[in-house]
Amino acid sequence: MMDIHSPPIRCNICGYDGSFIHKENERESMICRNCSSSSRLRAVMYILGTCLGIARLPVVAWAKNKEIRILESSGRGPYPMMLKEKFDYYNTEYDPDSELMKRPFTAYADFQSLAYDEGVFDYVIASDVFEHVREDAKGFSEIYRVLKKGGAFILTVPYNHEWAQTLTRVKVEGDRDIELLPPEYHGGGGQTLAYRTYGRDLPDRLRAFGFSVALLNFDASQHAITRQIVFVAIKEGYLDVTKYHFLETDARMEPLQASPLFLFRLFAFLKYNFFSAPYFISEVRRRLRDRFPKS
Predict the structure, then answer these.
(1) CB atoms inside a 10 Å sphere around CB 155
(2) C-alpha to C-alpha distance for 210 and 221, rounded to whole angstroms
(3) What residues form DSSP beta bridges with 10?
(4) Could you give the CA distance from residue 68 to residue 52 in angstroms, rounded to a whole number?
(5) Which position among 23, 41, 216, 254 has the lowest Cβ density within 10 Å, counted as fewest Cβ atoms?
(6) Of 272, 246, 231, 41, which is closest to residue 12 (Cα–Cα)?
(7) What is the number of other CB atoms lying within 10 angstroms of the CB of residue 17?
(8) What topology does CATH give the domain 2-291?
(9) Considering the entire predicted model, what is its pTM?
(10) Rounded to an integer, what distance in angstroms lies between the CA atom of residue 146 and that of residue 118?
(11) Contact 253, 10 (CB under 8 A)
């Protein structure tokens, strides 16, 4: 790692002004010294703020509005607890052994079979999750179902624009997973199997479910956001791409004094490791069963 010394830039999550920490992985680079957010996480919040019309303020300074309902899968970093304070926000984990996945408005959800009525969410967020969803078509269909008309699905995934088609790493046949390529694991502890890496067919796949889709390929140097690709998919609504034109500008955010978040970072680290532990253990058991099947 090395420090980037440049004119002060602002974290659009916590409001910190200063230098950021550079890492080799560009998508996950430019770590905020105050809240530890990565470039990818700030990009996701940048787009959410744009959709809400409040992107000139960092997330920590957004006004409370409990009328806005948001569903997220496996949200990480500093912003989930901020969103929970401000909106009717549900940050969920996937645990196939949990009965809570069959109930709405809990800490668990299976995006392939969501336990919600139609049209209950204003926004759904999935940042680097859908490459791990076993049957992603079911997930896209379910998100479309639970969004309100005009609601937005904000999505990031490992994506290669040079590929016309998504690369399938693991083929799904019924209950069987057939590895077509050497297995690739992501996530905490590297225990979450990647089923695919997406290509240029992704926007058309989303449109097939009824979404209007924009692929946003941008950076925002004023927030230390390196080049990112974020998909915005709108349900039964017009997607006004002009609202995203400011992404190319260097607009200044409103003044704000950032608060130190050391204790917050420690709490978040313990919280998310605690909640992910059961899934981590179940995934290890599954891999052991696959490797050493009973005779």
Answers:
(1) 28
(2) 33
(3) 17
(4) 10
(5) 254
(6) 41
(7) 15
(8) Rossmann fold (3.40.50)
(9) 0.83
(10) 4
(11) yes
Sequence-separated (6 or more) residues with CB below 8 Å from residue 196: 131, 136, 166, 167, 168, 169, 170
- Please name the amino acid found at residue 44: V
Tell me if residue 100 falls in helix, strand or coil: helix
Contact predicate 235/211, CB 8 Å: yes
Segments of the chain assigned E as strands: 2-3, 9-10, 17-18, 21-22, 69-73, 88-92, 121-127, 147-156, 167-168, 170-173, 176-179, 185-186, 192-193, 196-197, 211-220, 225-235
Q: Alpha helices of the chain — where are they, by DSSP H?
A: 39-52, 79-86, 136-146, 202-207, 262-291
Tens-place pLDDT, residues 215-269: 999 999 999 999 999 999 999 877 776 776 544 444 445 555 555 555 555 555 4
Distance of alpha carbon 78 from alpha carbon 269, whole angstroms: 9
Length reported for the chain: 295
| The token pair that represents 14 in the structure block | 């916590």
Q: List the structure tokens of 118.
A: 């139609």
- C-beta separation of 145 from 114 below 8 A: yes
Tens digit of each residue's pLDDT (9 = 90 or more) over 7-16: 568 999 999 9
